[in-house]
């Protein structure tokens, strides 16, 4: 048992016994089906920070590693019920590398030996030392590389290897010097493009934040099948927590599932609604819903990119802040930190980092939830390009107060201001722009309400429903009209009995009718109180 070769199962043991573990062991079943298959055994998974990449690596190492005895650890988990469970349990030589940790360790060494001058020499030296300790019976030639050690072991014993590399893209993200980067490419080629070595590798599972770069690195890793935030395929349900997993956690800790969903849901991956797992684990046991993202990353990632101000980017950002979706072409981005050619590249990059979600069916991106919306608001706070938008956001708290006080004129004025800044003049008069104006004007309401767009209700569909988190606040049902009248909007709410969508709600509801006149570009508002018993 070594540090990097054939590690034990302690890391995964600690997670399983934390009392907050969500069983993701069926990922092992997916990996077992790919094990040894020349087409599928090379797996590259990219997802944002704090989405469980390291935990998945620890789990796979605990399962496959000969340096662990993990039958009891997995015995009560889902994978234990699968036929393949014992067939592959602790049967492989596992090489597990946390490249980010090793890069940090190397960087902290003040006086480097000749063998450790370059980061990849440092990594290679550590792994090779483990080989000599793990296989004392083999007489290894001097100055072997990692691939050389693997070939020697496979030649003499026939034993196969599982590779697990966490944060494989750290040297790309850290933009290391040319010498280190070229040695990294040599390291990758020697492991994964060596035809003599391929039979010795049963599985290679590498993770990162970004997909493989589409130039220098891609040719070195083109044998890997990629699973990303754009298309995770077989690994979709393991990208984060699913709805049922979060619902179960909320039930266990007796906290609001609806509030948790509004805060951390919104990533549509395949057929799954995916939640930020780190945030859920932090929030649910304590019952405190807030942004945990800022503790692990920085809104400067957003602000640096939107300051590039490519054509159309400002209108798109404002629309997304307002709850809308924007078209995005995700094919042109080269997966680098420097080659941004247009707004599509910027938005695709932010999808991979989790600051945007991707609607694959419609080819659109959007801000997924309240937690991330808060990061976007902080990102634009000091940006002069968004000064007017910020002003509207800051006024939103007062607008909500005036609405609750049925101040119709204040609502009309705020919507006039918001509508101008939600969209370009070309699409000023469409219904989507009107809904976005409402979202932006009432953006503060995210703190107090669960907001549902186009909610089935009574005899039709209510445009926007605001469901209070606190019972002392009234619910809001907003109906929108163009070139009509606010009175007709109110009548539609009453006639179609939209208040029936709030089955479990008892108390005051405000009916808010809003009309937008395309000729005058003005809004009219009418508010009526209704008591639901």
Task: Describe what this molecule looks like in 3D.
With 533 residues, the protein is an alpha/beta fold. Helices cover 40% and strands 17% of the residues. It contains 22 helices and 15 strands. The strands form 4 sheets. Strands 2-3-4-1-5 form a 5-stranded parallel β-sheet. It has a 5-stranded mixed β-sheet with strand order 11-12-13-14-15, with helices on both faces. The chain has a 3-stranded antiparallel β-sheet with strand order 8-10-9. Helix 16 crosses helix 21. The radius of gyration is 27 Å and the shape is elongated.
Structural category is: alpha/beta
Give the radius of gyration: 27 Å
- Strand percentage lies at 15-25%
Kindly report the average pLDDT value: 88
Q: What is the number of helices?
A: 22
Portion of residues within helices: 40-55%
Tell me the strand order in the biggest sheet: 2-3-4-1-5
Total number of beta strands: 15
Q: Based on CA inertia axes, which overall geometry fits?
A: elongated
Q: Which blocks of ≥5 consecutive residues have pLDDT under 50?
A: none
Distance between the termini: 67 Å
Summarize the main sheet: 5 strands, parallel
